[in-house]
Design goal:
It is a single chain. With 492 residues, the protein is mainly β. Helix content is 3%, strand content 44%. It has one helix and 40 strands. The longest helix has 14 residues.
Length: 492
């Protein structure tokens, strides 16, 4: 009967969408049965107790922690509220195993103290209250440290092919370490750099690509569990397919025709057949080319959709929540983003357009306000800013908000640069050889840009951890030379 009542209570919580429990704790058994327990939802803090199986009435109980996030530098005030926070010789509040400093009793059962520092150790930690009699209550992952001092090292340069434009980060040899591939426009090849996991790379390997390669993607295009590469080639008007062998090397290149002057490439499953397809944005023919994959690394002849003058870049997502993948395309001449809504059968409907900044170039999708929907970030060349389009979930977006970066913004990448669990931006600024970082506030807005050197003429920008320290680094292809730059995250 006790078990039935507990399961009934648990089911009621699950039906409200809150069934995410982080602790299963014994305590307060008064009848000697030994089978009592209590469950607490980690988000709401709600404690489910069952009669005489409940925890001891004198044990402390954490009800809230505000704020629940703070810098590794410490020093900010944190308030913990709950029950049975009575003073005594054993009473203590610890975050990540360290006591809150200068504890002061506030309103009701609130206690406020100074967050201890935790240099070099961002991420979630537990919060524990030790009661006056030594009984404890713990919230696993109840608090999160982020890097309090954002910083990046000076760029380290690595040789690649001639005039690299595109770049992708992926584990190309299956060793669990992040590698890099660049699409080299002038030499018409792809450079492969196998990461050693310490921020360095094995000797560069080159594989034939296509002339005027501008962008590339990594995906399993033939279903063998190994990553392949596809490049968009602006001069030859096609895509090059490099089938991976799983060891960082590739089979001879095959090519498939697309429209004129492809500038950007995306990958997804457009017709829901579980075989990966491709899309290219073609500046010369003012259209997009959709290539349906056969599942063996080859593709059906491209179908085209007119999208208007000067399309530049594409990103993939589901913006109307129907489970079918859509495209978002930057159009430079009309200074907007055009949405193509996928039907899930390999065809698309041209959707609405949304204004952005002056002369937009790069676009990326990510959840910038924490609502579970994919938003858009667009880098704008002439207005020297980034436009943020917050998704409404129905294929439309809120009006764009802009955030200045102070220089020509070419490309944008999305990732968590300071470890606070919120999405940040990194923007390649080709004109002055730097990368701007904008730290996200979690609501679709950003702090003031902070700049870091990146080597001359960075074009694209990608984010990943290349030295295994848990911090997100930045890599850029320097298209005026034959190099790329790695900028390691040195935050504390």
């Amino acid at each position: 009967m006790r078990t039935l009542r507990m399961l009934t209570a648990l089911l009621a919580i699950c039906l409200t969408g809150g069934c995410d429990f982080d602790s299963l704790k014994s305590g307060g058994i008064t009848d000697g049965s030994g089978d009592g327990f209590a469950l607490r939802d980690k988000d709401s803090g709600l404690l489910i107790e069952e009669g005489d199986m409940a925890r001891s009435p004198t044990a402390p109980l954490i009800e809230s922690i505000k704020p629940s996030i703070g810098p590794t530098t410490g020093g900010v005030m944190v308030t913990v509220a709950g029950k049975n926070f009575d003073p005594g010789p054993k009473f203590d509040i610890r975050i990540g195993g360290q006591p809150l400093g200068n504890l002061q009793r506030g309103m009701g059962t609130e206690l406020t103290g100074i967050l201890p520092s935790r240099f070099g150790m961002a991420g979630p930690v537990e919060v524990t209250v030790v009661g006056a009699t030594g009984e404890t209550d713990t919230w696993k992952n109840g608090f999160r440290y982020f890097w309090g001092k954002l910083d990046f090292s000076a760029p380290t340069m690595f040789a690649v092919g001639m005039s690299p434009w595109g770049m992708v980060a992926a584990d190309l040899n299956g060793d669990g370490k992040l590698d890099l591939a660049t699409a080299n426009s002038m030499s018409g090849d792809v450079s492969i750099l196998i990461g050693k996991g310490d921020g360095t790379f094995q000797s560069v390997m080159g594989f034939v690509g296509g002339m005027g390669a501008t962008e590339l993607v990594a995906a399993d295009l033939n279903g063998d569990g190994k990553l392949d590469l596809a490049t968009a080639n602006s001069m030859s008007g096609d895509v090059s397919i490099l089938i991976g062998k799983g060891d960082g090397t590739f089979k001879p290149t095959t090519s498939f025709a697309v429209g004129s002057g492809p500038r950007s490439i995306g990958v997804g499953d457009w017709n829901s057949d579980r075989k990966l397809d491709l899309v290219t944005v073609n500046e010369g023919s003012a259209d997009v080319s959709v290539l349906m994959g056969k599942g063996d690394g080859t593709f059906e002849p491209a179908k085209s959709y007119m999208v208007g003058a000067s399309p530049q870049s594409v990103t993939v997502g589901d913006w109307n929540g129907d489970g079918a993948q859509d495209f978002a395309i930057v159009r430079q001449r009309t200074e907007d983003v055009n949405i193509l809504i996928g039907k899930g059968d390999g065809t698309f409907v041209v959707g609405q357009t949304f204004r952005v900044g002056s002369v937009p170039r790069g676009i990326q999708a990510g959840d910038l306000n924490g609502d579970g929907m994919q938003d858009l970030a667009v880098a704008n060349i002439v207005s020297k800013d980034v436009s943020i389009l917050i998704s409404k979930g129905d294929g439309t977006f809120q009006p764009a908000k802009t955030f200045g970066v102070g220089a020509v913004a070419i490309y944008v990448a999305i990732g968590d640069l300071n470890g606070d669990g919120k999405q940040d931006l990194a923007i390649a600024e080709s004109e002055i050889g730097q990368v701007s970082t904008l730290i996200g506030k979690g609501d679709g807005t950003f702090e003031k840009a902070k700049d870091f050197p990146s080597g001359s003429a960075p074009w694209m920008v990608v984010i990943g951890d290349w030295n295994g320290d848990g911090k997100q680094d930045i890599a850029v292809p320097n298209h005026s030379g034959n190099i790329f730059s790695l900028i390691l995250n040195a935050s504390q």
